[in-house]
Amino acid sequence: MPPPYGTPPQRDSWFAPLSIDLFVKVLKTSFFHPFIAWIIPLCFRAQSMFWDAPPMLVSIAWAAFVSLCWIAGVINNRLAFGLPREVDLSEEVIVITGGASGLGLLIAEVYGMRGATVAVLDVEEMESGEARGVTYYKCDVSDKDQVARVAAEIERDLGTPTILINNAAIVIGKPLLSLTFPEIEKSLSTNLLSHFYTLKTFLPAIARSEVGGTIVTVSSVIGTVGAAQLTDYAAAKAGVSTLHRSLAAELRVSHPQIRTVLVTPGQLSTPMFYGVQTPNRFLAPVVEPVDVAKEVIAAIDNGRNASIGMPLYARWVAWYTVLPLGLQAVVRKLAGVDTAMRSFVGRRGLKKDATEKGSIAGF
């Protein structure tokens, strides 16, 4: 008997649109922004307040502190990521794996409309059909022979690739004891080994480019914290993150003109995790692909190295691993990370759900 797919019930409340990320964003553009911070003492001075008045001294001290924090942030990024490279989209050839839907499709369509040359590699047909400036290549990136064949076609049809975005992934969503060996092999091949195949295939061409290039790796916070029913996926994403960091270290020495961008999102609002419910939408909101796409595109456009984590907790999740084990267990229980997959339906379930709804509507 087929599983009773259907849209899982959604938890909702009056504060659903609010999240800690929204509050932090507002604070960063207001109270914690140097420009706004310096306006306060200037307003006091406009009211003829003396420079040695306590409110004036406090506001000046706060503005100076905020300014120093911003300067320290700029210095930190420069030390961590170095100087950016110049990017001319008319000269860039962008290869996106898993670009037929979700995050990959958004990035592909944006760059296609902006005049870049984009090649999408996916086993599925593109959801939006033909997109301007985007060429679709049917390719299973877990098969190194297919990757090599498509790479030759891209170089012949579009030119030498300069940007590689490794975005392809699958989620099986079963407990380890329920996974078959073919499912394990398929998951690890798609989520981890495909990165090695695409890098070994496309990186030599990117290294030959006179304008440099960019490698983008899409990982997940699950690679750091792990989760029940995601043993294969978590193991692969942990490997992907470590692969990216090791590769970035190699390229800084051998090919400093190549930039690297690591993307570590939380739960994305894409069909891949259809049905999964985030236990706490205030602290761990579901991330919209368009928000991640904006950050990735900004990093590529500016020609800089970057480490992108969304939502807010994704940028601090590494600190979870230094907590005492007992506290980690408490945090996991409160966060519900090990029960979130119980309502998992996935991409196939979404298609089945849509088919059933269409049949009912037709009936």
Automatic annotation (TrEMBL):
InterPro entries linked to this entry: KR_dom, NAD(P)-bd_dom_sf, Sc_DH/Rdtase_CS, SDR_fam
Annotated PROSITE patterns: ADH_SHORT
Entries under SUPFAM superfamilies matching the protein: NAD(P)-binding Rossmann-fold domains
Positions of transmembrane segments: 22-44, 56-73
Keywords: Membrane, NADP, Oxidoreductase, Transmembrane, Transmembrane helix
Domain spans labelled Ketoreductase: 92-271
Keyword NADP appears in the UniProt entry: yes
Gene3D superfamilies (alphabetical): NAD(P)-binding Rossmann-like Domain (3.40.50.720)
Key word Calcium present: no
GO molecular function, one term: oxidoreductase activity, acting on the CH-OH group of donors, NAD or NADP as acceptor
Family of the protein in this entry: Belongs to the short-chain dehydrogenases/reductases (SDR) family.
Name the record gives this protein: Ketoreductase domain-containing protein
Organism: Chaetomidium leptoderma
